[in-house]
Amino acid sequence: MVNEKVKVAVNGYGTIGKRVADAVSLQGDMKLIGVTKTKPDFEARIAVKKGYKLYAAIPDRVEVFERAGLSVEGTIDDLLEKADIVIDCSPGKIGAENKQKYEKAGVKAIFQGGEKAEVAEVSFNALACYDRAVGKNYVRVVSCNTTGLTRTLYIIKENFGIKKVRATMIRRVVDPKEDKKGLVNGIMPNPVSLPSHHGPDVQTVLDVDITTVAFKVPTTLMHVHSLNIVPEKEPKVDEIVDAFEKEPRILLFSENEGFTSTTKIIEWSREIRTRYDIFENCIWKDSISVVDGEIYLTQAIHQEAIVIPENIDAIRAMFELKDRDESMKLTNKSLGIGEIVP
Hints:
By secondary structure, this protein is an alpha/beta fold. The chain has helices spanning 15-25, 42-49, 62-67, 76-82, 94-105, 126-129, 144-160, 198-202, 237-245, 262-270, 308-318, 324-335, and strands spanning 6-11, 30-37, 54-56, 85-88, 108-111, 122-124, 138-141, 164-172, 188-189, 210-217, 223-230, 250-253, 281-284, 289-291, 294-301.
């Protein structure tokens, strides 16, 4: 597609979809041609106010939008006729149901981590396996937790090798806007049996021996990971810090600078980013330790934003627009990744 912008549709203008739409709009080699909603709520109106063309995700609900005084350009089927690729940002498991629609329309598709790996030809993380998505028609961007784990483990593996990883995920229970579900007063093993799904999911994009456990807690802001990594060669803490500092999609925070919790990291991001979106891993520099030859560290993951740059890079890989480093550089610049460090 030399000198032509990739025409991108976003199916599902919600937590991830609206961020993907904004990110696509910032790319010089892509064009956002429309977004979908299932109902004429405030997010649908915001999309229109931003100038995004709105389509009904469910064809027989066009009249619902019209009765609400919100006109649409057509249905998802009409949108797919104009698209080169659709970014499916539907709720988990709905994307798999949508795949037949995309196949019929003859468009490429990117699915999110809420879908099983089998929905796509490959699972995707830009750092770990960009080349596997080159030229593919169906790609799955792995989940927020998997993305965060993969980035950190990729850096460690490339620099020091990895024998074994043990990871504990302390998961936010829902996204901030959700008001119909939650965990008000409790800590929930998720699941009770080992392993959590995160370890096997990491292995779809990175060859590493990993065991994970996860717990849901009553917070909505971020996930927190506690990692224990057995490297092939024992590094010094300064060497680990240096390796992380060279990767723009990883930020190092210090307790001495006031970053004592996820709330302080979010407050920092409120000052520099739209919606306080943090596209990077947030690693507490003070937590990085080497004990008896094993690496320990703690990181926080902003679940609403971390996969957004991965979706953009996946588009470039699928259309063979740029190689990994070129794509990540363009994406980082467009989203302000690496421009401001704490």
